[in-house]
Amino acid sequence: MNPIRFRLAVPDDLDALDAVMDAAIGALQRGFLSDEQIASSRAVMGLDRQLVHDGTYFIALIGDAIAGCGGWSKRATLYGGDHSAGLREPRLLDPAHEPARIRAMYTHPDYARRGVGRALLQQCEDAARASGFLACELMGTLSGVPLYLSAGYRVIEEIEDDRGGAPVPLKRMRKEF
Which among 11, 96, 83 is positioned nearest to 54, based on CA atoms? Predict the structure, then answer.
């Protein structure tokens, strides 16, 4: 297998990233969510383009293919895409007292279970740590929770987000460095 390489996402990548996210949401949540919940989850998942503009969103490449994408944020928004109503909180976080956010982590279904998600998570944590953060938080989907638990995150809150219609279970998770 080709090694995983990383680069920062740029605005020209947005359509390709949307396609990866769409494929991941549709395929990798099967077995965790009902069809109604998968459809509903699209209302609260997706890319917050602020991450691309902030230079904190990575693309994982295997060969020339986008195998996954994910980022971290120095802003208070915990989860959701540009289209997600009511989730925007662009305030900058204080790295000495607040955790960085791990955001919009997606693996293309063709590359699932190959270490892409774990490598992206490590890339994001390393960047957040280099920026002075002492911890990270994220909102995990049921399909992502096993990865995050194995990487040292712990569940600190469980919610259901029903803004897309059907309630979608999510777990807020945290890891200290």
Answer: 11
Domain containing residue 53: CATH number: 3.40.630.30
* pLDDT per position as a tens digit, 124-159: 999 999 999 999 999 999 999 999 999 999 999 999
d(Cα 53, Cα 153) in Å, to the nearest integer?
Answer: 27
DSSP state of 115: S
Take residue 96 and report the two structure tokens written for it.
């000495």
User: pTM value?
Assistant: 0.96
Q: Is the dihedral of CA 114, 104, 171, 93 positive or negative?
A: positive
The residue segments making up the domain with residue 145 are: 4-79+93-176
Measure the N-to-C terminal CA separation of the chain; round to a whole number of Å. Answer: 31
Within 10 angstroms of residue 105's Cβ, the number of other Cβ atoms is: 24
Say if residues 60 and 119 touch (Cβ distance below 8 Å): yes
**Count of structural domains, the chain:** 1
DSSP for residue 33: B
Q: What is the pLDDT of residues 7-29, one digit of tens each?
A: 999 999 999 999 999 999 999 99
